[in-house]
Amino acid sequence: MPETGGEIGRVIADCRRYHRLPMTTAPSPSARVRFHSIVWPLAIAETIVWAAMYYSFPALLPTWEQELGWSKTELSFAFTLSLVVSASLVPVAGRLIDRGHARAVFAGGTVLGAVLLALLSTVTELWQFLCIWIGLGVAMSSTLYEACFAVLVRSTGDRARRAITIVSIVAGLAGTVAFPSAHLLAGAFGWRGAVLVFAAVVGVVAAPLVWSACRRAEIQATMHAPEPSASAGQALAVTRSPVFWLLAIAIFLAALDHGMLISHVLPILDDRGIDAGLAVVAASFIGPMQVAGRLALMAADRFANTLVASTGCFAMMAIAGACLLNAGAAPALLVGFVVLQGAGIGVASVMRPVVTAELLGRRNFGVVSGLIGLMHMSGYALGPSVAAIVWSAGGYDRVVLLAVAAAVIAIAALLAAWRAPGSGAPRTPNSAGAPPD
């Protein structure tokens, strides 16, 4: 009997430690106010920044091609350079945020973006266009999701997943805001006037919101965030961990899956005999399904299991690929593809920083998250080219099968990371607790 009683006691202790049940102490009213005073300003600012710095490019690309006289290839090269610069500098921005410089990094990047957008409205030469987009890559490295999530993980503690979900849901509407806004503004004031309006909104609205939210976040981080490593070399020691590489492989493959399918979705659907109009409608609903997936995750946040949510979103993407593979024979499966692919990648974008913190800890999170984000960007950037190469070798069936295989291997890699030596993940099946320090 003493052994039985001790075992029961240990089980109860484990449950209290690892499983977030209603017995968890609810946040005080003042804690909720502090939480929302950080999260909602950043959610609004992220929506503006994504709309102005990122989505303004595809929204204005046809206009630039027509009015500036440069080819789509030349214009797109500028945006590609911008994304490469942004992805390369994200770990640097993360390191500075880890060191307590969130305001300088995040607000500074926002102001830099506003200035560069204003300068973009004056370009007359291609080299000027290229230089400004390279500069915008620097600005985006310290203002888009990775930097924002680093601030949230440091400052919101156990509620980081809910904070990230809220920001992702709101900022997920950035494309919806950017495209019609750019069209209307360009029609009324020309594309130069449209870019100037974007610059003004970033500088006058987003920058103050970021500054005030980051000031509060830095105060909260003193209570929630562990001290970062003294040197960048110590922070990069995480790359010697098998857990890091297993997680990096999982994130890379999931991004590769989505990059391949989303960039070739219209020709894939055409290959399956789907009507062109229906194909466009289906593709346009993948974005809203991302928001729907994040809303579902937020609704289940109190009881959601980190491992199940993380592997589940990859499983949805694998099943979505199977639906797409057979959509020609059963067009109803097209709905399954749209819902599962959209919701899967939507949840994956939220779970990426959460599972990174849980597996690798919150110390040096900005650097670690930046490195994982670099793997995500690499997979997404390679997706279109990989799909084109595979298609030329064997058609779109092989592209879709490769995407399914990538999602399945991503699940296996994540499960291996969860159980690997050195993982910070709890060892109970019901783990859904806060990220380890």
The number of domains is 2
Mean residue pLDDT: 85
Remind me, CATH topology of the largest domain? Growth Hormone, Chain: A
The CATH H-level superfamily of the largest domain is: MFS general substrate transporter like domains
- Residue fraction in strands: under 5%
C-alpha termini separation: 36 Å
Total strand segments = 0
Question: Which series of helices and strands comes N to C?
Answer: HHHHHHHHHHHHHHHHHH
Helix content: over 70%
CATH architecture label name of the largest domain: Up-down Bundle
Structural class: mainly alpha
- How would the global form be characterised? globular
Query: Any idea what the radius of gyration is?
Result: 22 Å
**CATH top level of the largest domain?**
Mainly Alpha
Poorly predicted segments: 1-25, 427-437
